[in-house]
Design brief:
The chain is α/β, with parallel strands linked by helices. It has 14 helices and 18 strands. It folds into two domains: 109 residues, Urease, subunit C, domain 1; 315 residues, Alpha-Beta Barrel (TIM Barrel), CATH 3.20.20.140.
């Protein structure tokens, strides 16, 4: 049993900020056993956070392209379809060299933990060995993760040097990757495989059909991109005569806890289907600025019953910080509500009732992501996993003597970053 004394900031709903002032959290076998006021606790405490440090639930990043880590922050001068061929596919293809890939993983995973990302949902490369090494690296560093070998075989949507040669080969490699990850020694069950068709433009119908059948057979989660921007959304409409959402559903890939990245051009009808299937959206606000062509309507999606979390979309987004993306999620929602073209009249410039606040953004980064995955994460309460991050408010508080609790929380969401993050725990173990 492990006992930690702290003040907790968290969001048990999209509209509720809750703070637990000076409590002791008792953890057994990675799970929270009890939370009691410190004054009522009469046993020895293992760790006590100082009065200027708060504990938050671990941050959940629903969308990361692991092989793109070396290009983080670069190459945003071309549209998505050109960006993939000019910068991204060449970078990902280097992971054929497992030694190179291992160096990337050993740089990335500790850095993400240092940013407070206790749970990550990763696209690997197309290579089974490199993807297995990524899963092993997450286990070794203590990060909770879903790791997927990226499947892609379409001769027009992928380069000849970086693709599955046939649909059968791609399906066999995805199955082999799942088996390899499941076979890893993982005493705390931190890492799971996830079925990963890159997106419809990169996959033939035969491969998509096979991956849908693999998902039904194994029960493993699915991740892919969906209606990210005008090019991708329009491509699927032209090829399949229906929306990205309906197309994925027809292939059996829209399932409970399927993670759909971006969704900038999802319609209300799409939202209804996604909600009915129990899938969710990884909202990537920073990446969408560069590649999305539109602002994802977070509030409308939540109101439609769609589960929504956050993603950095490394390296489509230029920051590895999920807190930075939470702050930007608020910003872009204001752009959507207020509009951006000053030539339009104010009453038609934006979309009414689109804004979200810091509470909703923090919810997306924690409990919202947990709900997408269907896992007992994202909230510090008995019965859930103890994944948590200690954040110092010393450099965030700008009011002498400290601000109100609500304002300190808002400052944390908008201002906190890697420099403010101290200890990080995953499954009850301190990993930073």
């Amino acid at each position: 049993m492990f006992h930690l004394r702290a003040t907790v900031f968290q969001t048990p709903s999209r509209s509720t900020f809750d703070h637990l002032d000076d409590v002791v959290i008792s953890v057994e076998d990675g799970t929270i056993a009890a939370i009691v006021p410190a004054g009522d606790f009469d046993e020895a405490v293992d760790v006590t956070l100082d009065e200027n440090t708060v504990l938050i639930p671990g941050l959940i990043d629903l969308h990361i392209h692991a092989p793109q880590w070396p290009q983080l922050g670069t190459g945003y001068d071309v549209p998505l379809d050109e960006w993939l061929f000019e910068y991204t596919f060449p970078t990902e293809a280097k992971c054929a060299d497992t030694t190179y890939a291992q160096e990337v993983w050993d740089s990335m995973v500790p850095s993400l933990l240092a940013n407070g990302t206790t749970t990550a949902v990763y696209y690997g490369s197309i290579h089974v060995d490199a993807t297995t090494a990524l899963a092993q690296t997450c286990i070794r560093h203590g990060q909770r993760a879903w790791v997927g070998r990226t499947a892609m075989d379409h001769p027009e949507g992928t380069p000849d040097y970086y693709r599955d040669t046939t649909a059968a080969e791609g399906l066999a490699a995805s199955r082999a990757s799942i088996d390899a990850i499941v076979a890893l020694e993982d005493p705390h069950a931190l890492v799971q495989p996830i079925i990963t068709p890159r997106f419809i433009p990169a996959c033939t119908d035969e491969l998509l059909t096979g991956l849908g059948q693999l998902a039904a057979e194994t029960g493993h989660l699915v991740q892919t991109h969906c209606s990210e921007n005008d090019w991708e959304h329009g491509y699927v409409l032209e090829r399949h005569g229906t929306s990205d959402t309906n197309s994925l559903d027809g292939f059996g890939l829209l399932r409970d806890s399927t993670v759909l990245a971006h969704g900038c051009l999802l319609s209300d009808d799409d939202f209804a289907v996604i909600a009915e299937r129990g899938a969710g959206v990884a909202h990537c606000p920073l990446s969408n600025v560069y590649f999305g062509d539109a602002v994802f309507p977070t509030r409308r999606a939540l109101d439609a019953g769609v589960k929504v979390g956050l993603g950095t979309d490394i390296a489509g987004g230029p920051s590895a910080s999920l807190l930075a993306n939470a702050a930007r999620a608020v910003d872009v929602s204001r752009h959507l509500e207020n509009g951006v073209d000053q030539r339009a009249e104010a009453d038609v410039r934006g979309v009414d009732e689109s804004r979200i606040d810091a509470t909703t953004a923090f919810y997306l980064a924690t409990l919202g992501g947990a709900d997408v995955l269907g896992e007992p994460l994202g909230l510090l309460e008995p019965g859930r996993r103890f994944d948590a991050v200690a954040i110092s408010l010393s450099d965030i508080d700008t009011v002498p003597g400290g601000d109100t609790i609500d304002r300190r929380f808002e400052k944390l969401v908008r201002l906190a970053g890697r420099r403010d993050i101290g200890a990080v725990w995953v499954h009850g173990r301190q990993v930073r």
